[in-house]
Amino acid sequence: MIMIGMLAYSKAGHDRQTLYMIVDEDPEYVYLSDGRLKPIEHPKKKNKKHIQPVKKGYDEGVRERLLAKEPVRNEEIKRIIKIFQKQGGI
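^ that's the sequence the OP posted. Answer follows.
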């Protein structure tokens, strides 16, 4: 399953319970951005078993652009995370 563009909670580490967007992935790791402390230019590398993907709450347009390796702004990621949290999260 391709997780790029999905939201995910960190399950382990000092950032536990932090919500991120998955901006890239490889077989063992995902690269996370929150648009603030971890901008898309410098994403956080995290082991896949240390995150909990969220099946809803992502923006299909942003997801398609990430998959196509087109630019996405940090403001868009912050907006998507903020909207999801206002709706009550998981």
